Amino acid sequence: MNILVTGGAGYIGSIVVEELIGQGDHVIVFDNLYYGHRAAVHPDAVFVQGDLADRAAVKALFDVHSIEAVMHFASYTLVGESMQQPFKYIGDNVTNGLNLLQEAVAHGVRRFILSSTANLFDDPARMPIDEAERIVPGSPYGESKHILERMLYWLDRVHGFRYAALRYFNAAGASPTGERGEDHTPETHLIPLVLQAALGQREHIVVFGDDYPTRDGTCVRDYIHVTDLAQAHILALQALDGGSRTYNLGNGQGFTVQEVIEACREVTGRQIKAVIGRRRPGDPATLIASSDKIRRELGWQPRYPDLRTIVEHAWAWHRSHPDGYEN
Ligand code: UDP
Q1: Is 141 known to be catalytic?
Q2: Which site among 87, 139, 208, 312 is 20 to 30 Å from 79 CA-CA?
Q3: pLDDT of 92-111, one tens digit each?
Q4: Predicted TM-score of the model (pTM)
Q5: What count of Cα atoms within 13 Å lies in the side-chain half-sphere of residue 198?
Q6: How far is CA 78 from the centre of its chain?
Q7: DSSP H or E segment with residue 40
Q8: Are 290 and 128 in contact (CB under 8 A)?
């Protein structure tokens, strides 16, 4: 299939591209490289540098390539930043997605996978969180994904659009090939920060609060291997002819910040200094996904469910790419 992947030079997008090419799809990556890396794009993908804000560029993309399906990763993704700059999120993320959707519809493309988020669930009534949970976006970032999910709902009703919205919990790890992994500037995610401390690139890791109502007082999150996420995209795309769908995607088990740091110490064999700091505003104590629905409906099974393997793959990537994609 000819698949357009927006944000295919980013962390998750680039690993999805690797998997798609591995199974024989033809991939067109569209990325403005603000945050993505040219070197992250699989050499067999067609790469087009461009911005979704540029409607003419998006139109040209669909005019030139016979696109049959879209996977949309390109977006601003920082929850904290979205609380400072809401228009970048409920503005740009939404209008860029709108440009993409309008051109997709205009060109007869009816298959679409949206990269969505656990930030839709700021006030969950039940844990683990399933798809029946009430949506309460935790930030303008979460709201921007919610708005895109709603657009997709209506495009399905009006245009017969078939979509899957995949709400990721904590994507982590690196490609098992060792070729692609996490390289964000600034880095805000726990595992890469802890591994930077293991590499001596930072003196310590700050634990954001140890007075939460959890087993050791630090926040519990559901870390899902990025390759397992990628597989979920592939399964979801294959299932679209059977109708649109929405899935929560995680491992279904939670680990505390302290447990993640301990796993990193074990895997790296290095000293990692942890300092207890203040809570980070907006962090819920516990976020765990129920992925029963995608397991049941699509037979999705995480290949790398245990935290150790996730950290081992991340460590292999960080050790071989201490400066990310720079060298
Ligand atoms: N965290 C931390 N120190 C850091 C970065 C993150 O203690 O330097 C914690 C954060 O409070 C959260 C967990 O690690 O409970 C995962 O954070 P991350 O930013 O990786 O993902 P999020 O859950 O915010 O999507």
Answers
A1: yes
A2: 312
A3: 999 999 999 999 999 999 99
A4: 0.97
A5: 26
A6: 11
A7: none
A8: yes
